[in-house]
Design brief:
heterodimer, A: mainly alpha, Four Helix Bundle (Hemerythrin (Met), subunit A), B: mainly alpha
Chain lengths: 204, 100
């Protein structure tokens, strides 16, 4: 929020209707993120209610792996910072740097999805699929919804890499890049909730 | 949308997030505190880390529409409080009655 006065000055200088339009789109995207936050909050609540209903089956303690959760957390957190650097490079008009940081963000995000899919496949193979108990249904719904979001973000990163390459850092492209940044940082916040509500308490 | 903060901003946020992640993970790995204490530390670290992300990564400011953004966040918080709080209330009550 400390950046606000500078931002106002920047807009005063540009003063264009195009900038106004993209600001409105940013607000619209923010409203979408808030509705997504409600979805995640309700999935967290469902998990909280169902966490103890293991039906005599496997529990979090026997299924979860602390180091796997730590690696996933590290990948997503570093990718949040590399996306921040991509945003800064876009502001400075450095196309090559934007592409470099986006590639790095994509690789880190893909690593996260890989670890998650490997965990899911291992659990289902061990007979701990979403149909085993209420606990596991809630687990797969919550963590899987987050994973689908990250995968969608990866596709969006690919699309933006294409747009930055073909169209360059025009106002519409940087404004889309900015909204993708909101999405990506938001997913990292949701993950903080997942390791704090699912993995760490499950492994205590 | 020009408010991306600075490089230092992102690095400070990242370091704070790493510390607030390492503490609860280390506590669970070493099991050095009691269950209740560990849960409290995990919850506190999560809330702090979410605030760090909102401040240093999302910047929580979109220039002129900053006030609308905050309004949307506040309204969302009310909705989440009503739906999550109400559901947990109902389920706990049901749980207690089932035990009677």
């Amino acid at each position: 929020m400390s950046t606000r006065p500078g931002t106002m000055a920047a807009h005063g200088g540009g003063g264009s209707e195009a900038a106004e339009l993209h600001e409105q789109r940013a607000l619209g995207f923010w409203l979408y993120l808030m509705s997504d936050a409600i979805i995640f909050a309700l999935l967290f609540m469902t998990y909280g209610i169902m966490a103890g209903n293991t039906d005599g089956g496997p529990t979090g303690k026997s299924l979860f792996d602390l180091s796997n959760a730590a690696y996933e957390t590290a990948l997503l957190l570093v990718s949040s910072m590399t996306f921040g650097f991509a945003s800064l490079a876009a502001r400075d008009g450095n196309r090559g740097a934007v592409l470099g940081w986006l590639v790095l963000t994509f690789v880190l995000g893909a690593g996260f999805v890989f670890l998650e899919v490997r965990e899911f496949v291992g659990m289902i193979g061990a007979g701990a699929g979403p149909d085993r108990s209420g606990f596991l249904s809630a687990f797969f719904t919550l963590v899987g919804t987050h994973g689908v979001h990250v995968s969608t973000g990866l596709v969006w990163i690919l699309i933006m890499m294409g747009q930055v390459t073909v169209k360059g850092l025009t106002l519409p492209v940087t404004s889309r890049l900015f909204r993708l940044g909101l999405f990506w940082h938001f997913l990292d916040i949701a993950w903080v909730g997942i390791f704090s509500v699912v993995y760490l308490p499950g492994l205590m | 949308m020009e408010s991306h903060g600075t490089r230092a901003n992102y690095i400070v946020g990242f370091v704070l997030a790493v510390v607030l992640t390492a503490i609860p993970f280390a506590l669970v790995a070493t099991q050095s505190l009691s269950r209740t204490q560990t849960v409290l530390v995990i919850a506190a670290a999560a809330v702090l880390q979410i605030l760090v992300h909102l401040r240093f990564f999302l910047h929580m400011s979109l220039s002129r529409s900053a006030r609308e953004n905050l309004l949307a966040v506040a309204f969302t918080a009310v909705l989440i409080f009503l739906m999550v709080g109400g559901s947990i209330w109902v389920m706990l009550d049901l749980h207690l009655r089932m035990a009677l």
